[in-house]
Design brief:
2 domains; mainly alpha; 139 residues
Length: 139
């Protein structure tokens, strides 16, 4: 009589652990912050497995992966811009003029980057990084 309970319990635990590990945010944290791209089928299938077992964990997994951008495949292209060309976008108080930055990036990279997208994750620089470029940190 205890054997069926152990099998059911073991299957349930395995399903929940597979769902926990099925989140793309846990597998590829470096993908967070992507705004758009092609959907990674592996992550989509792993998130969909959660829908098969329980609706709520599957919906949460899809929501987290889409909100963080971890469900999207990396673009495969990298672009580098010389910091000296970005200097006109930085105002004397250390703030960034987004419109000017977007125009510089579009000119240098040949791509339109949506800097006003609400899903964009912005990282602040340290005072040491600003000092290296001759800028005074704003309080």
């Amino acid at each position: 009589m205890r054997m069926p309970y152990r099998v059911v319990g073991g299957t349930l635990v395995a399903a929940l652990l597979a769902q926990l590990a099925g989140c793309g945010t846990l597998f590829w944290p470096e993908r967070r912050g992507q705004i758009e791209g092609r959907v990674d089928p592996v992550i989509a299938v792993l998130d969909a497995i959660g829908l098969l077992f329980y609706i709520i964990p599957g919906v949460i997994a899809f929501g987290v992966d889409i909100a963080t951008g971890a469900i999207y495949l990396p673009g495969g292209t990298h672009a580098q811009v010389d910091p000296a060309t970005l200097r006109p976008a930085v105002q004397p108080d250390g703030t960034v003029n987004r419109a000017r930055l977007q125009a510089i990036l579009q000119q240098q990279l040949g791509r339109h980057l949506p800097l006003d997208d609400p899903r964009l994750i912005e990282h602040r620089g340290s005072p040491e990084q600003l000092a290296a470029y001759g800028l005074v940190p704003a309080a």
